[in-house]
Write a structure and sequence with these properties.
With about 130 residues, the protein is mainly alpha-helical. It has one domain (about 15-115). Helices cover about 75% and strands about 0% of the residues. The chain is built from 5 helices and no strands. The protein is elongated. The mean pLDDT is about 85.
């Protein structure tokens, strides 16, 4: 991009971005497994299996649990990416008001994001 500003590359920033990307890929794998489970339920319904059978078999709950974990992982990773980017922009001298405009949130929310110390692994995350 012409006229792009360059800053020193930090391993911590790059590592944080790689970790978020890894978690998103893991979530995508989990989402594909959930989709396959739901498609199998569709096959079973076409064969005449009752909703009760699917529920008693655990298919419905299993699919809902997988979907729920995926949603939590994605939300957590979005927050981690937002936090990493906001901190990087602040370190580069960008105002919280400008960051808020770039992110579509208030400058107060940006201040809160930057101050958050939560960098733990997302719920449902696994070690790859």
């Amino acid at each position: 991009m012409a006229g792009a500003l360059l800053t020193p590359v930090g391993d911590d920033d790059a590592n944080a971005l790689e970790a978020v990307a890894d978690e998103i890929e893991a979530a995508a794998t989990d989402d594909l497994a959930a989709a396959a489970a739901v498609r199998e339920m569709a096959v079973q319904r076409r064969k005449g299996r009752s909703w009760r059978h699917l529920a008693e078999q655990g298919s419905i709950r299993s699919a809902l649990d997988r979907i729920g974990v995926g949603v939590l992982r994605l939300r957590s990773n979005a927050a981690r990416l937002r936090r990493t980017a906001a901190r990087g922009l602040v370190a580069e001298g960008v105002s919280t008001r400008r960051i808020g405009t770039l992110f579509g949130v208030s400058h107060q929310r940006v201040s809160s994001i930057v101050a958050t110390k939560n960098d733990r692994k997302p719920e449902g995350a696994t070690d790859a």
